[in-house]
Amino acid sequence: MEKQTKFVEEITSMDVDFAKWYTDIVKKADLIEYSSVRGCMIIRPYGYAIWENIQKNLDKRFKDTGHENVYMPMFIPESLLQKEKDHVEGFAPEVAWVTHGGSEPLAERMCVRPTSETLFCEHYSNIIHSYRDLPKLYNQWCSVVRWEKTTRPFLRSVEFLWQEGHTAHATKQDAIDETIKMLDVYADFCEQELAIPVLKGKKTDKEKFAGAVETYTIESMMHDGKALQAGTSHYFGDGFAKAFDIQYTDKNNQLQYVHQTSWGVSTRLIGAIIMMHGDDNGLVLPPNIAPIQLVVIPVAMNKPGVVEKATEISEKLKSVVSVKMDDSDKSPGWKFSEYEMKGVPLRLEIGPRDIENNQAVLVRRDTREKTIVSLDDLNEQVLNILSEIQSDMLSRAAKLRENNTYNARSFER
Q: Which among 71, 82, 124, 87 is positioned nearest to 258, based on CA atoms?
């Protein structure tokens, strides 16, 4: 019990120091490890599993809306980057440059991609010729590098994982429709899967993406009352098309420039989950995105039949949810704290008395509410509770935002 208490006490209270609380959780919950490369993190298996679930869900949404995955090089020649003036000026302070190949200086230095607009534009100029080639609806899953001065795990790092959609359309309206549609995809994903309510809006000219005509964003309020940009969608107009000579012949045999969009979300979403739902005992993961939705913990494992029954239950539940059974030699109290720290949405406890009564105890991570359920309809009960957790987490997050939203009538308020 002493070790269990220390395990929890090592997290700084969010009310004392929210930033320290956040960094405590990303380490204690085994999401990341710091690397020897400044501003870069090692995403550990549990943290990467969360990203895989985000990626899997979003990838399906993208493909359902007609998008295809491609992959572009990570290096961009300087001459290519220079083709769009506003774009290069916007990213210049964050660009990392490669100047040598082995011991030989390069004839032209290359940047490590901070984003891939120029590469997609070069590609589109080579493959788009006719209105029949449009639209081009491409997406890329990759990492990018931006030489940030101040970094925090998941929220802002020198290298991070993301997806970047890049599309080309025949008309301005088609491109604008795409920009808004993908913003709506992001908003629905955040609310339905991450239980994070968002506000959709357009950025000011000063804040819009370098080279964009308009930038739209989804913003979410974190537990400390601050807003976090969770995703962006950009309408480029034909500016990039003119810079890279991306033209097509329309139905009247006239040359036209394409209209383009770009949109992206990153591993920052994991940071959003932490700051939106976490508490002083660690992560609280929405069931729809949790790598482990339910953990089975046998109690009094030395008693005959307990581990066997826990194994049987685990196998039965695997048909409906993501399950882990922990039959390690750690104490039950330690296990409870460990999986609370990791934010596993639901815990099932099973011991000799439970087996005698054909029951199990289910404990919610978000509220710690305990429910005794019959083993006869366990699958249905688990699914119902997980659905309630997902819904309740979204409702609480929406209530937090509502309670911290005011009509500003003066600078004082």
A: 124
How far apart are the C-alpha atoms of 330 and 186, rounded to whole Å? 41
How is domain 8-277 classified at the CATH fold level? Answer: BirA Bifunctional Protein; domain 2 (3.30.930)
Tens digits of per-residue pLDDT, 199-226?
Answer: 999 999 999 988 899 999 999 999 999 9
* Phi, psi (rounded to 5 degrees) for 150: -120, 130
Tens digits of residue pLDDT in 386-405: 999 999 999 999 999 999 98
CATH superfamily to which 294-400 belongs: Anticodon-binding domain (3.40.50.800)
Nearest in space to 124 (alpha carbons), one of 174, 61, 170: 170
Q: DSSP 3-state assignment of 348?
A: strand
Per-residue pLDDT tens digits for 120-169: 999 999 999 999 999 999 999 999 999 988 889 999 999 999 999 999 99
Amino acid type, 195? A
Whole-model pTM: value is: 0.94
Q: Is the peptide bond before 332 cis (omega within 30 degrees of 0)?
A: no
Please tell me if the domain spanning 8-277 has the same topology as the one spanning 294-400: no
CA atoms within 13 Å, Cβ hemisphere of 217? 15
Distance CA 114, CA 316 (A): 46
**Tokens at 10, concatenated:** 């090592």
Contact of 268 with 160, CB cutoff 8 Å = yes
Please give the helix or strand (H or E) that residue 214 lies within, else none: strand 214-221
Domain range annotation of the chain: 8-277, 294-400
